[in-house]
């Protein structure tokens, strides 16, 4: 497990740097205002560990041992909350829809 966590942390750091740099460059090239690009990029960076964890067997097994619903709902709610810091207005109904949709899955 320690080796897997070390690899996960290394991949997480490298991925965050690469995604952050690519996202910032893309926003600059497309003329997307920072007030919109920053929350959207933040949501992407928040979601990345959830996708990455599925690629590591030990972490994947840990998640599927009863924590899968919490993992899925957290992975859906956190990016929405990150986007609400400027790119989109927060709405309780939208948050409830996200939770209900993922909860149904």
Overview of the molecule:
There is one protein chain. The protein is mainly α and 105 residues long. It is 82% helix and 0% strand. It is built from five helices and no strands. The protein has helices spanning 2-30, 34-53, 57-64, 68-83, 92-104. Helix 2 (34-53) runs antiparallel to helix 4 (68-83) and helix 4 (68-83) packs antiparallel against helix 5 (92-104). The relative contact order is 0.13.
Structural class: mainly alpha
Give the helix tally. Answer: 5
Radius of gyration: 16 Å
Main beta-sheet annotation:
none
Sketch the topology as an H/E string, one letter per element.
HHHHH
Global outline: flat
Oligomeric state of the chains present here: single chain
Low-confidence runs (pLDDT<50, min 5 residues)? none
Helix proportion of residues, in percent?
over 70%
């Amino acid at each position: 497990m320690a080796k897997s966590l070390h690899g996960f942390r290394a991949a997480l750091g490298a991925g965050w740097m690469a995604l952050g740099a690519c996202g910032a460059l893309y926003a600059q090239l497309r003329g997307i205002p920072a007030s919109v690009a920053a929350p959207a990029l933040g949501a992407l960076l928040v979601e990345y560990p959830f996708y990455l964890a599925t690629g590591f067997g030990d972490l994947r097994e840990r998640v599927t041992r009863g924590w899968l619903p919490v993992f899925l709902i957290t992975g859906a709610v956190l990016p929405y909350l990150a986007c609400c810091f400027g790119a989109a207005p927060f709405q309780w109904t939208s948050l409830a829809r996200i939770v209900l949709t993922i909860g149904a899955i």
